[in-house]
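Tokens as discussed.
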């Protein structure tokens, strides 16, 4: 089995059947070997550094009804909020002072934030913080809208594909949403020039190992600049409330494989991983991740942006949080850097 890891490390081709067999039969010893090789690959490309991004969860209104998501339209118990432009800019100010050089604006698909409003918000952030990167995670939009946002100064866009299997996609989403449209958006974003993030949940209902292997094959082919990959965690007010959460080890295995098949990827150790394991962040970094996204949203809304239950919500201020993370990761011999943290091909 270690020979297979070596082949991944050397960038050799493989059949999807081989990867299915590897994931299904991996033992503890090989897991550690895999994690170490993934870290070695990351260190060769980016060094032993962690990039941090300030996450601003600016709206939990959403027109979509993804079956797994706590802010889905049908969840009448969600306590809805939106931040206005002034509040978003305050989050950026507070983050900038704490050393953040990337702001990630994430939210539900909220019609109140029209294309014009988003363009205005993006250009204002860029005007105030020209040396910072702006990442958007606001769902599916038209080519023209993406283009306007890019021209306004947005640098990156996160849009997880969620699963590459169409039947699986349709079990996770209402029939108003299609995998085809999701993938089209990803290709449009890349064509426009964004640094693009795809990704999927590990352990989502009805997922099979074969589907994850196809997710990996898609990532290998599409080579996104970023991959968002975390465990599925149930939310009590969704139809998937009784499903169990994704597995920590499987998430780490997927992170390592993504690092090896797409070595230059910017790979977050996600909040979801840190929510199902108290050392999730460090474990993710020790499996090849190199990005952390602390929350810059005002404390009063942090609990309202609830995609899943038992979210690990930090009550710390950004600077305190940064220092706590810096301490934790120095224990694993990694260092936080004050940097935009662009994909290596852009540097
Ligand atoms: N609306 C944007 C979009 O569609 O990309 C961004 C917000 S969406 C809530 C961000 C991501 O949260 C999704 O891509 C999904 O993978 C993740 N997510 C939603 N519900 C989740 C759950 N129950 N467990 C883990 N991750 C979840």
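Sequence:
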């Amino acid at each position: 089995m270690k020979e297979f890891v070596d082949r991944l490390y050397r960038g050799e081709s493989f059949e999807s059947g081989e990867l299915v067999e590897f994931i299904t039969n991996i033992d503890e010893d090989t897991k550690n070997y895999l994690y170490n090789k993934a870290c070695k690959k990351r260190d060769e490309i980016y060094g032993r550094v962690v990039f941090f991004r300030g996450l601003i969860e600016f709206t939990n209104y959403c027109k979509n009804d993804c079956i797994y998501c706590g802010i889905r339209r049908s969840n009448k118990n969600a306590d809805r909020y939106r931040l206005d432009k002034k509040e978003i800019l305050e989050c950026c100010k507070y983050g900038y002072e704490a050393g953040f050089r990337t702001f990630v604006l994430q939210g539900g698909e909220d019609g109140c934030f029209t294309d014009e409003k988003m363009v205005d918000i993006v250009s204002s952030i860029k005007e105030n913080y020209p040396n910072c990167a702006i990442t958007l995670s606001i769902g599916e939009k038209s080519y023209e809208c993406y283009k306007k946002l890019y021209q306004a100064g947005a640098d990156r866009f996160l849009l997880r594909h969620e699963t590459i299997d169409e039947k699986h996609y349709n079990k996770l989403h209402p029939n108003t949403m299609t995998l085809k449209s999701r993938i089209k958006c990803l290709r449009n974003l890349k064509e426009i020039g964004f640094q693009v993030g795809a990704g999927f949940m590990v352990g989502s209902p009805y997922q099979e190992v074969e589907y994850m292997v196809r997710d990996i094959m898609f990532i290998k082919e599409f080579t996104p600049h970023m991959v968002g990959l975390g465990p599925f965690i149930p939310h009590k007010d969704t139809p998937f409330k009784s499903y169990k959460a994704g597995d920590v080890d499987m998430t780490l295995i997927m992170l390592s494989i993504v690092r090896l098949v797409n070595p230059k990827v910017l790979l977050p150790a996600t909040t979801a991983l840190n929510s199902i394991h108290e050392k999730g962040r460090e474990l993710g970094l020790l499996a090849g991740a190199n990005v952390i996204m602390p929350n810059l949203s005002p404390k009063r809304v942090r609990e309202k942006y609830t995609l899943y239950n038992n979210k690990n919500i930090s009550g710390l201020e950004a600077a305190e949080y940064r220092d706590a993370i810096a301490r934790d990761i120095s224990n694993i011999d990694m260092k936080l850097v004050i940097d935009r943290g662009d994909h290596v091909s852009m540097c």
